[in-house]
Structure formats: structure tokens, C-alpha cells
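Limitations

Structures in this collection are predictions, not experimental determinations, and the ligand pose is part of the prediction. Treat each record accordingly. The example that follows, with acetyl coenzyme *A as the small molecule, is included so readers can see exactly what is and is not provided: the inputs are given verbatim, and the output is the predicted complex.
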Amino acid sequence: MIRSVVRGFGAHLPERIMKNSDMEGVVETSDEWIVQRTGIRQRHIAGEGETTASLGEMAARQALERANMTPDDIDLIVCATSTPDNTFPATAVNIQNRLGMHHGAAFDLQAVCSGFVFAVTTADSYIKSGLAKRVLVIGAETFSRILDWNDRTTCVLFGDGAGAIVLEAVEGEGTNADRGVLTAHLRSDGAHREKLYVDGGPSTTGTVGHLRMQGREVFKHAVGMITDVIEAAYEATGLGSSDIDWFVPHQANRRIIDASARKLGIDDGKVVITVDHHGNTSAASIPLALNEAASDGRIKQGDLVLLEAMGGGFTWGSVLLRW
Ligand code: ACO
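Predicted complex:
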């Protein structure tokens, strides 16, 4: 049986850091309020010349290097983003060109904060169906560009960045027998649109628009939706929380992460947290967290890794994989 195995990982963050104390000069807020409600202490903000594609390119280059591959080896790029450089062409095609790659295919996938989970699931489906052999899966965002910097209820929550992994088709034999993506579960429900959306777009206002959110409403639904897709992953595989080596959730909010882990019975020590220093980077948050935990040696080959995300739409999903 063909498996999609992680061969490389990478990430890139803008150089500029905005601490909570810097936010105090932008809107009426405080470090104490932000830390207490969200766990966020700082975020990276893209500077002049930095775009979703430029951040994505850097993350992709690092993932390729770690995979010991070049762009020639890749036959598909999937980039999860809600903040593309342009309405079109796709940011994935822009990254493909930046990598000097002119073969294969590249496309964007838009599922907001769940984008990376949706992109891994899509790449895995391409690999398992034989349509692709080596896929660069990227999550890249510049949410700072769609924030209303006068709205303290949203602008303190988000940051910019990019992460990437390389997935390769491997015959599940020998040492690879139990590696790769084991199961994935995706959901969406547009009835929740008003709770988290951008109030612009090419077909409505002809503008880019700004992020709007009913924070309490999002919070209310988050833990239930997250546990729903994780329980679906457990049911599909016969595995459970005690088998998980690393829980790598979408990094929206420390309180949502803690409540989800508690409800699922996942030990604190198995949870990868980056929201404190990255903020919510939407589709980039999971690959940024994977990069951090795999770079510092926490996530090792053979570890069972659980990914989950929930975001605008609403969309939500889980991926269970063996690293
Ligand atoms: N600084 C200081 N005060 C603030 C700020 C701020 N940045 N933002 C809001 N407040 C004030 C409000 O004006 C309100 O004041 P009032 O009582 O005088 O009216 C008070 O704080 C409480 O506001 P609430 O919105 O009720 O605060 P809440 O406790 O719900 O926390 C938060 C807000 C952190 C957004 C919370 O609802 C939350 O975490 N929601 C989840 C949203 C989320 O994570 N979204 C990310 C995108 S979706 C995803 O990725 C899953």
C-alpha cells in the first residue's frame, strides 16, 4: 500500500517582531489582557518586500534541503493560504516560479486556518491515487495585511509566517510499513460564515477587505468541532489519545488548545505550543509548529503525530500521521 511519508520540513518567519507591548501603542490593549485571553506574547509581521509567496518560498527551500531534494524532484505544490499575493495567479504558482520549477502542477487551497490540514489531505489523496509522487505542501500567510489595525478584538491575535513539508509516495514496506498519513477527516459548514469572515473580495466589493470575527462565537464552537474530527481519526484507526506522541494543533489560542487537549485526555507534555511567540498564523501555524518540534528533536521518526485545525467557514479537520 502506498503511503505519504514526510521527507522534509521547513519554515520561515518575517524578521520583524511585534510584542504585546508594541500593540499597546496601536490599540487600547495590554500585555496582561492578551496573555490572559490568548496566551500570545508576540507575533512576526511581514515587512516591505515580504509577501506570502516570499515567505512560502523560503519555507519550501528549507523543506527541500532537509528532504535532500531539489525542485526537479517535486511534481506538485499545494499552498494553503487565505492571503495570496494576488487574486491570481495562485501563490503556489508564484512559489513554483521562484523555485525555478517549470514542470508539474501547483495550486492554492483555501480553507483559512484549516488550510494546512486540508492541503496535507489533498496531497495524500494525489499520492495514494498515483497522480503525484512528491508533493511540496505549504502553509503561508500574511494575515497582517487583512487585519483592521483599529479593531483591538482581532488585530492582537494574528501573525505572519510560512511552513512547509515534503510528502513522498513510499511503498509501505519494511521500515516504512507504518509511516505516513494514516487517516484524515475534513468538515465544513457555511452556516457559520458571519462568525469569521473577510468583508471584501473581488466579486463583492472589489477590495481585499478586513477580517471580522465574533470571537466568543468562534470559541464556543471550536472545542466541539476539534474533538469531533479527532474522535473520527481514532475511530478510523483504532488508536487513541494514549498512543499519540505529539499533538500539533492549529495555534489560534492557548485556551482552545488546552481545553481540547483536556477533553481528549492528551497529556500537556505532548502538546506542541507556538502560539505564544507566533500568534495565530492561520494555515501556516501547524507547519511552523511541526518545524519547531522536529528541528529541536521532539518529533522523531516513527512518532505518532496528531494535527487538527478549525477556522473560517467554518472549516475543521484532523490528520493522523506517523512521522
Ligand atoms: N485588549 C483589551 N480589551 C479587549 C481587547 C483587547 N485586545 N479585545 C476585546 N477587549 C475587551 C472587549 O471590548 C470587552 O470589553 P467590554 O466588556 O467592556 O465590552 C472585553 O474585552 C471582553 O471581550 P470579549 O470579546 O467578550 O472577550 P473574550 O473573553 O471572548 O476574549 C477572544 C476574546 C480572545 C477573541 C476570545 O473570544 C477567543 O479566543 N475567541 C476565539 C477566537 C479565535 O481564536 N479566533 C481565531 C481565528 S479562528 C481559529 O483560528 C480557530
